[in-house]
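Appendix B. Worked example

We walk through a single record from start to finish. Start with the input: the chain for Metal ABC transporter permease, Paracoccus rhizosphaerae, length 376.
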Amino acid sequence: MLALLGDYTIQTVAMGAALLGISSGVLGCFAVLRKQSLLGDTLSHAALPGICIGFLIAGSRDIGTILAGALVTGAASALVVLLLTRMSRLKTDAALGIALSVSFAIGVVLLTHIQGGGNASQGGLDSFLFGQAAAILRGDLWIMGGVTLSALALVGLLWKEFKLVSFDPGFATSLGLPVVALEVAMTTMVALAVVVGLQMVGVVLMTAMIVAPAVAARQWTHSLGGMVTLAALFGTMAGVSGAVISATVRGLSTGPLIVLAISAIVLISLVLAPGRGLAWASLRRRRDRRRLAGRQVLSTLYGLAAEHGDQGYRAELGALDTFHGTPTRQTLQQLERRGLVAPVTHAPETTPHWELTKAGFAEARRIDDAPEGDDR
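Next comes the structure step. The output line below is what the pipeline stores for this chain.
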């Protein structure tokens, strides 16, 4: 493994994947919180015509010109979305869908035109669709790093404003903040994240890198700062692990492996995240069902005791089962472990009977006297 990590190409790909994870993780948080998860998909597809225009301007696969073109068309597409939502009755999802399909169609037309033009340097240009991590050079890392640092610096500079606009844009407007300008800035940052990942995972898969780290991080924390930090960490983990696995197993592309890695992190987060994970939700529902069943059995025993004027009234197990329409033995045993009921005999009957203890009678009376809806 150490020898593998010492390889120059693998180091380059891993560093590029780490930069991708950091930028997409941090910037994707704002898109997810603003309920614009489709924005990453729109901007990544809108980058394709920019890639083609950058190639046509440079006449070769100059990464700087290509990424600049992708940024320009991505930002232009985002501007179109903002104009459509603010100047028409279209909702955000409809505007995003229009921008995505139109821009990608333009990109495919331009790509077909380039491929039919006979320019020898256009070879491999279509790799931007699905990414080609192995083609990344150390010089490309400087561009990716510059874009990432610029985006992170902007986030740090406008942290409070971005936070307010993401959670309560109406209140931000009432404070006099330039909400439209801030939304444009946030959208441009997402476009920057897309540009960073184009060569690594490509146009088609880039949307996963915008959404997935933020979704995974949201499961583990309640604060924006924690979410942004975790999203950057998850994105980096997925990027580096995908690069290493791709280098270890021949024939596997880096981009799809990175997306699969972050998808695995999302799945683990959705299942195991404390408080929000599906496993915790299942345990909470089971605990609530047990608590409700215990309260119902206690109330039944209390009602029988009150009706017969005997605090130690002995209720027959079969009668309790019939009254509740379900077996109650397990619930009674749980209440017994809490010291609220006790098994007793009731001669000459041989069937199991149960009675409230002093603590159980007090608890049942508290439940009976509690206001309706109070489950304390």
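Two observations about the output. The longest helix spans residues 179-218. The chain has two domains: 2-273, 280-369.
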